[in-house]
Amino acid sequence: MPEKNATNVAKLHRFLVVSLELIYFTYIAQLVFHFLFLLHLFSLIMKKYTIQKSPFVVPTTDGKLIEEHFGNATTKEPKISIAHMVAPPGWSEPFQTPEFEEYTYIIKGKKQFIVDGDTVVLEAGQSIKIEKNVRVQYSNPFKEECEYIAICLPAFSIDLVHREEE
């Protein structure tokens, strides 16, 4: 008889364990379902685009206007920065060797680049890509302002630009 009671207790124990496992897995499945449902609702609500109406205006002391639309300063985006810039006549920056690629598109005026010792002048409608880890200097030695768009990959960061002291 004690063997029969032990067998019944073992069966009852197994039944309780299986029942609890079933309840637990059902609960987990419900949580996952609710999470996925909420995620789906969230994706329906969230837009797949961002309109930038308030770019960050970077404070400068050299008269250059820098409006960062996307990037580290504005959106905390480390992968890319996009900035609208206006360089006044006579403006220049020190040489630098950035750890990012920089693309520049000239909207108005002219801009001078010294890239690895080569002097390049771009005019409105022209663009340039400068590879990362290349020594470069940007300037506007001309009599009219230069308006342009700059895109950096990864995003511009003062820690990655490596400007030389003048």
From TrEMBL:
Pfam family, one: Cupin_2
Transmembrane segments annotated in the record for this chain: 22-45
UniProt keywords, alphabetically: Membrane, Transmembrane, Transmembrane helix
InterPro entries assigned: Cupin_2 (IPR013096), RmlC-like_jellyroll (IPR014710), RmlC_Cupin_sf (IPR011051)
Sequence ranges assigned to domain Cupin type-2 in this UniProt record: 84-151
Alphabetized SUPFAM superfamilies for the sequence: RmlC-like cupins (SSF51182)
Keyword presence, Transmembrane helix: yes
Protein name (record): Cupin type-2 domain-containing protein
Organism: Tenacibaculum platacis
